[in-house]
Amino acid sequence: MTSLPNYQLGRFKFRPGRPRPFGATVTPEGINFSIFSCYATSCSLVLFQKGAELPMVEIPFLDSFRTGDVYAMTVLDLDPAEIEYGFRLDGPFDPANGHRFDAQRILLDPYAKSIGGLDKWGESGTREGIYPYRARLHVDEFDWEGDRQLNIPLEDIIIYEMHARGFTAHPASAVNAPGSFAAIIEKIPYLKNLGVNCIELMPVFEFDELDNDLLNPETGETLVNFWGYNPIGFFAPKAGYAACGQPTDELKSLVKACHRAGIEVWLDVVFNHTAEGNENGPTISYRGIDNSIYYLLKPDGSYQNFSGVGNTVNCNHPVVRVVLLDCLRYWVSEYHIDGFRFDLASSMGRDPEGRPDPDPPLLEVLAYDPLLANTKLIAEAWDAGGLYQVGSFPAYGRWAEWNGRYRDDLRRFMKGDPGLVAAMAARVQGSPDIYAERGPHASVNFITAHDGLTLRDLVSYNSKRNLANGEDNRDGMDENLSWNCGLEGASDDVSVNDLRNRQMKNFLSILMVSQGVPMLLMGDEIGHSKGGNNNSYCHDDALNYLDWSQMSANSALLDFVRHLIQLRQAHPVLRRRAYLKHQPTDELNGDQFSESVSYHGAEPWSPDWSPESRQLAVMFCGPEAEEEEATADIVYLIMNAHWETSTFGLPRLPQPLRWHVAVNTSMTPPDDAYPPGQEIPLDDQLAIIVGARSVIILIAH
Known about the structure:
Layout: E1 7-9, E2 12-16, E3 23-27, E4 30-36, E5 42-49, E6 57-60, E7 66-67, E8 70-75, E9 83-90, E10 93-94, E11 99-100, E12 114-116, E13 134-136, E14 159-162, H1 181-186, H2 188-194, E15 198-201, H3 247-260, E16 264-269, H4 286-294, H5 318-335, E17 339-342, H6 361-368, E18 376-379, E19 399-402, H7 404-414, H8 421-428, H9 432-435, E20 443-446, H10 455-458, H11 494-513, E21 517-521, H12 550-553, H13 555-570, E22 581-582, E23 596-600, E24 615-622, E25 633-640, E26 646-649, E27 659-664, E28 680-681, E29 687-690, E30 694-700
Helix pairs in contact: 5-6, 7-8, 11-13
């Protein structure tokens, strides 16, 4: 027999609830609501009929409903599908001491699994409303049909960084619901054909795309927050990315479909700040629940800004740590997410005073949490406060990093800067100078990412072109380490365009044979340009849309990338979990080959380490390749960043092995790259001519 409710307010019956789990949970008795606040003096639950402007009831949490600093109540006879809810908390308004309670505000539940008010892209509710972003319940009835995390070894991963909307929003995408999670499912055959086995989705936590008041000076149109690095809630998927109006189920369907295709799904996670901004920002959730707990504050109560956008989450406070751990556990257990990339992750390692903590509790607990044991953890190992930790990010044997030094050294080398040969030797073998104790799989190698120039623009612009962002070209990085190949911007000059195409292929070739984990930016495989804009966060247009009509026009580059990925997948020696032993000088002989890496110059076994050298060859050698009849797995990478053609002597191979050309970026398509097994044998096995500013990859068969 069910006991009678303890209390009643109008037609609403309620009783003391369970403190855990936090948030709203459907139970056999009703819906349990639980929220933490250390410094609030009172709290009430505000219930709305779904979509109604005004609440239908506000129920105070009685003193007996509070356990410690947790308010909890169970409300009976509610339909989870028909209500929205929030909390009203009262307490001191004392900014100097960190408190910003405002009893006039209805606050979003930090644990909201679904958020209303942002249901359709570009049609967000007004931010001036009584409660613009509304917590909703989510009852999980999704059938996973036995799905689970793929657990692909990190060293075998090839990442494709994409924007969930931008991937299919272009009219040429020819999908049923452009810009949606469902549309990505339609394009899985493209991803499979390309060869990537991991998509890294830019932020899909709920955010308000209309949270931008700047105007495009070129068109007069209001700009948006397209990228989504401004989270409103950490537990709710972006409703505007759902075609069916059910973002939770649609995102799960995407994950399940990707897993069936052998593709992992990673999320770009923004834990470093929230959409509440600085002192002048809106009060949405955390600020009104417990400002001094959730944010890093200065002694005067103002916000520390290690994120560059107004506030910084107090990640290593014990309570906040619980929220963030609960969040990742939720995405792994409920959405089967395979990995997370943490935006400005160094800010997550700061202590409550904002100082770098050498042993950050949050990073440690994430590394050792049993539910996250098979989940990839990738750090953007810097923040906007000047903390740069590439190679020194607290790893606990688990964390990998975006290797910013790989990006920078490769860009400098390929544009012809001197003194980079030794650095390139380290970068292509997985940066042992940076990750000596962690292995090459700790290095996520990339040339471009969402933040910065695209690959096409990297070889076309010396300076950023961000005027359309409405900030007088002040935003975005000033130093891009780019080179325009002689002319600024788009050009009809055949020689300039030939050089640009060759440079793009050079970058991609080195990326795909480097030890570590390669990451490809969406659109780079077809030479997508943003017209030199290196901070296109605010554009919901062609700058950020993948133009599917360019697949045909740039099919040669697309085929080149596809062949490079096939090459990487065919050669285990390129995907080592441990560093290869350096072999300083020797002749290859015998039927068995030790696993080793060696460096070469114009003469084999004789690299030129001088400051003026712009040439390097690297040989990766392993015992066997994946082909059934192979007796060795040997890949020879020749990089000539000099502006003159050069002849490279080749290491002698024992019979019956011969050098075959897999890639030669100085050749015109289709002779610039060959699929595995179709490489072209060299007539001269002792030397090869390497074109100016070009890369050659040889395979021993």
